[in-house]
Amino acid sequence: MRKFSSVLACLLIAGSLLAACGGNTNGGNAQGNKGGEAPPDTAGTATGNAGSTTNAPADDITQRKVTIKIHYPTPDLTEIRTQEDDKIKRFQTEYPNVEIVKDDWQYNVSEIGVKMAANEAPTFFNTFATEAKFLVEKGWVADITDLWNNYEFKDQINPVLQNQFIIDGKVFGVTQKGYVTTTIINKKMLDDKGVAVPAMDWTWEDMLSTARGVADAKKGISGIAPMGKGNEAGWNWTNFLFEAGGEIQKIEGGKVVATFNSDAGVKALDFYKKLRWEAKAIPQDWALGWGDAVGAFQQGRTAMVMAGSDGVIEQALNQGGLKPEDVLTYPMPAFEKGGKHTGVLGGDYLVINPNATKDEQEMAFRYITFDYFSDKGLEALDAVLQQRTTDGKYFIPPLLDYYSADSEFGKKTKAVYDKYMNVYQYSPDIMALLDGKPEAQYNTQDYYATMSNVIQELFSKEGTDSKAQLDAAAKTVQEKFFDTIKVE
């Protein structure tokens, strides 16, 4: 989901080894401020204007003047800006022919069309796993298949993440890092209440029992904080739809058909009812967005929260003062024993502006992948870990990174992590249980928003009819959004 993957990107810099990103995702609310950067050089940005090259030899791009407008972190992300500035300096040392213009606009589905129409979008920009088909169908991302095929490290890229931006055999983006939705547990809160830590191969009933055991309404403590505000609410709930074996949509006869009003959907909604009305395990003020739910976890006001792990842990350890041994990362619970621990799979991607010239596109690709699989990238990571040690902060790697964990570079990265005591360690058992399922490719945000209304009704009114709620929601999504789509 856009909101969460981008928040993670703001908090972490190792996932893309300093390929910084920021803003806010999947709720469709990403905002970018201009932050006082130097005005773009309109003679040579990603608008495809003439003037970005000279009459240098046609066969050597390094001998031609090229200007690229890069995706740059927002002003509040001072640490990440520092790292990006270092990357710019190193890139221009190798490519002195390239002029770099900074642009801290962050992808927003409601703004991208205007940016493209006005030729104001950067040469490359951040986006999210849900946006692949949308951007490709609109013609707002460049086909970079040739650049990709010539990239020497393409076979070491994490295929689970990269495949989200490979459509009909063509490549339209480069993965930065990704996540599978997990459940993060405050072990200390369980210990304080005498609640046993569940097995990692846990179920919905285990989650319900744990949440019920920790909840203490008189003290304002909840056992779990499912998100109940904004598109986040629909995104959180969709994990349970997937775990019960449900789907959001299907393609039938060239049309997109809503399928979430299924038996699996009813089971998932009924489970939310149990958390709210039977166990009384969710916050009394349940209207929580991503930041609210993560903040509650950080402050010890809820024992469990569901999200991409690294952003939650970053705040819990470095802002909330929790200890690593008290913050446990679990897969999402299985519907029943022996079932899959399915979590929504999302991620951060960089895509290239199709209005850019071929030279600009190639240099943008080289910039995006500049630190990938490089010793300089490892050195930069090492420097970050040293600085975190000096600052007394923990470093939280993402569960899924741009490289395959078993690749040569994955092993080198682990060796860097192993040098430091302040790197958060995930349980070795979690990777075998994680089951990531990609978000739907059509109108995902509209579906999330519609389901958020359903969740809010369920949380505010006891005795709702799950099937009737889902049928009404499916009808809305179908008629308002899916019926407008023609699938080739």
List the helices and strands and how they pair.
Blueprint: H1 2-11, E1 66-71, H2 78-94, E2 98-103, H3 112-117, E3 124-128, H4 132-138, H5 145-149, H6 159-162, E4 166-167, E5 170-171, E6 174-180, E7 182-186, H7 187-192, H8 204-214, H9 231-243, E8 249-252, E9 255-258, H10 263-278, H11 290-298, E10 304-307, H12 309-318, E11 327-331, E12 341-352, H13 358-368, H14 375-391, E13 400-401, H15 408-417, E14 434-438, H16 444-460, H17 466-480
Parallel strand pairs: 1-2, 12-14
Antiparallel strand pairs: 3-12, 4-5, 6-12, 6-13, 7-10, 7-11, 8-9
Helix pairs in contact: 1-12, 9-10, 9-16, 11-12, 14-15, 16-17
Structural commentary:
The structure is a single chain. This protein has 17 helices and 14 strands. It is α+β, with helices and mostly antiparallel strands and 488 residues long. It has two domains: 2-179 and 347-417, D-Maltodextrin-Binding Protein, domain 2 (3-Layer(aba) Sandwich), CATH 3.40.190; 182-344 and 435-484, 3-Layer(aba) Sandwich (D-Maltodextrin-Binding Protein, domain 2), CATH 3.40.190. The strands form five sheets. Strands 3, 6, 12, 13 and 14 form a five-stranded mixed sheet that branches. Helix 16 (444-460) packs antiparallel against helix 17 (466-480). The longest helix is centred in the N-terminal third of the chain and has 17 residues, at 78-94. It is globular. 50% of the residues are buried. It holds the Pfam family SBP_bac_1.
